[in-house]
User: Which sequence fits this backbone?
């Protein structure tokens, strides 16, 4: 996925990022949190966070949600922090 994020944007990427680029200046957030419920949402969250880091470096980004808390649970690749400032991980404790 890292290589794909370094390559040319897709049509869907461009549409998504255009919407994001329109909304961010309107609200001027200090933090944008991405909830990623499923693995299929992961790429878009990374692409949007990449856009924020490239165009709005003062905005902090965070990644969490169902996928991170049920499937990921630990982090082996430090490159995640090229896109996100914070990540939440569940250690698997019982409710």
Assistant:
């Amino acid at each position: 996925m890292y290589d794909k994020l370094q390559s040319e944007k897709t049509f869907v990427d461009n549409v998504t990022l255009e919407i994001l680029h329109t909304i961010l200046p309107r609200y001027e957030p200090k933090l944008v949190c991405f909830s990623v419920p499923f693995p299929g949402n992961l790429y878009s969250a990374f692409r949007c966070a990449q856009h924020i880091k490239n165009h709005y470096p003062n905005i902090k980004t965070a990644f969490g949600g169902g996928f991170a808390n049920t499937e990921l649970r630990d982090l082996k690749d430090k490159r995640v922090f090229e896109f996100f400032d914070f990540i939440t991980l569940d250690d698997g404790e019982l409710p």
User: Anything to note?
Assistant: The mean pLDDT is 91. Residues 81 and 87 are 9 Å apart (CA to CA). The chain is about 45% helix and 15% strand. The first helix runs from residue 2 to 6.
